[in-house]
């Protein structure tokens, strides 16, 4: 039977639910968010601490994203065809020297 409130299905009889890690993870995240909100309502210092943690996490994510962008940009500038051509030329030159 459908359960639109929870965007899920409810079992009526004779069925078993498969393990759903994603659903459990979502429920855990909701529970943690609810606990955090309740804690912040009672403790203004906790609000400040959480904002600081969130800001640090956001800065780390942005730094990692920037590093990935730079890495991708460096790889995009590498001309693999030219490298292969140069390698083939070196191989041919070595073969000629060996034959001489």
From TrEMBL:
GO terms (BP aspect): mRNA splicing, via spliceosome
Region (Disordered): 28-52
GO cellular component: U2-type catalytic step 1 spliceosome
InterPro entries in the cross-refs: Saf4/Yju2 (IPR007590)
The organism's place on the tree of life at top rank: Eukaryota
Protein name: YJU2 factor
